[in-house]
Amino acid sequence: MSKMKAVQVSKPGGNLELVERNIPEPARGQVRIKVEACGICHSDALVKEGHWPGIQYPRVPGHEIAGRIDAVGADVANWKPGQRIGVGWHGGHCFTCDPCRRGDFILCQFQKITGISHDGGYAEYMVTPAEAVAAIPEDLPAAEAAPLLCAGITVFNSLRNAGARAGDLVAVQGIGGLGHLGIQYARQMGFRTFAIGRGKDKEALARKLGATHFVDTAVGDPAGELQKFGGARVILATAPDSKSISALVNGLSPNGKLVVVGASPEPITVTPLQLISGRKSIQGWPSGTAKDSEDTLQFSALSGVRPMIERYPIEKAAEAYEQMISGRARFRVVLTMGA
Predict the structure, then answer these.
(1) Is pLDDT above 80 for 58?
(2) pLDDT tens for residues 263-295?
(3) Where in the chain is the domain with CATH 3.90.180.10?
């Protein structure tokens, strides 16, 4: 078999097109993956709408990929055909820039991004640099593993590096694609977990996911509610609403940190006095490297953290994308390949 199904975008603002392509061959330092599942992320709109500079079209989107190694290129020694693996947003690094020389590969000045720098996982096969590959535990199904390679790693990696310790109060703003995972991770890490959402109807789900308290922003001030408990050591902002994020700063405890993972183009508003008083800070966090992905997948398998997903066959990729971009999905949309 030399052909495969793939879904591509031919031009900025174009449609998602189901096409037949040649199965790609792995070059030196690359592996070929037989894709079993690929999550659809809101960031895929960067490809579809042409919002990321320098994208070469046609391009196959997708950076939440789970499958098995099908073939390896020359000089790939640590991966073998048949291994269960995944690939996330981080699609390779240069090894030579200053961040890479310090081992901080996620900040590589020339990093490759899966589905943007090269074709991604909306296809039955794809190739990727070997350094971007993460092992998937055998007891984690591909369709559940896929969203953990972007949404999962983003919230898991940011929480474990935020400075909170077991028993600290950690609040998660937003109960969506990122937030529903953030609540689970926070609880499994041993934090007193507060969920912040809009609407009383979200409370039951938030508590089911592991939240000990729920703050409804439609009827109350989240910062004030957090301060009733001494403030949050960490607030994880997952919903891309800069106005709502700005309102959370006063909910931090002394030495508290607002960690922003929900990407919004609008500015966050904060005064120097808000930060100076209590030595508070605001930090952004990207996803992570392949090793961070492995840690995320292993922790999820051990602790029972799972994404809530809606499955679509690759032939219905356009419908699946619309379900995601409309906000109707609960909470991650996943393409599956074949049977």
Answers:
(1) yes
(2) 888 999 999 999 999 999 999 999 999 999 999
(3) 3-148+288-336
Dist CA 264 CA 262 (whole Å) = 6
Size (the chain), residues:
339
For the chain, the maximum distance between any two Cα atoms, rounded to a whole number of angstroms, is 65
Mean pLDDT of 157-177: 97
Measured CA distances, 52 to 12, 49, 144, 223, 261 (Å)? 10, 8, 27, 35, 18
Give 276's contacts (C-beta < 8 A, 6+ positions apart).
Answer: none
In the chain, list all ranges with CATH 3.40.50.720: 162-284
d(CA 297, CA 178): 15
Fold for 3-148+288-336, please state it: Quinone Oxidoreductase; Chain A, domain 1 (3.90.180)
pLDDT digits (tens, 9 = 90+) for 87-106: 999 999 999 999 999 999 99
Give, to the nearest 10 degrees, the angle between helix 179-188 and helix 153-160: 40
Q: Look-up: residue for tokens 């403030």?
A: 231
Average pLDDT, the chain: 97
**Are 44 and 61 contacting, i.e. CB atoms less than 8 angstroms apart?**
yes
Kind and range of the H or E element at 226? helix 222-227
Evaluate whether 300 touches 189 at the Cβ level (below 8 Å). Answer: no
Residue from 305, 257, 250 nearest 281 by CA:
257
Q: Calculate mean pLDDT across residues 149-172.
A: 98
CATH match of 162-284 with 3.40.50.720: yes
Q: How far is 310 from 331, CA to CA, in rounded Å? A: 7
Q: Are 176 and 195 in contact (CB under 8 A)?
A: no
Q: Are strands 169-173 and 192-197 parallel, antiparallel or unpaired?
A: parallel
The β-bridge relationship of strands 192-197 and 133-135 is unpaired
Amino acid (one-letter) located at 16:
L
Q: Please, are residues 65 and 113 in contact by the beta-carbon 8 Å criterion?
A: no
Angle CA 19–84–184, to nearest 5: 95
Q: And the tokens for 32?
A: 């070929």
pLDDT at 339 over 90: no
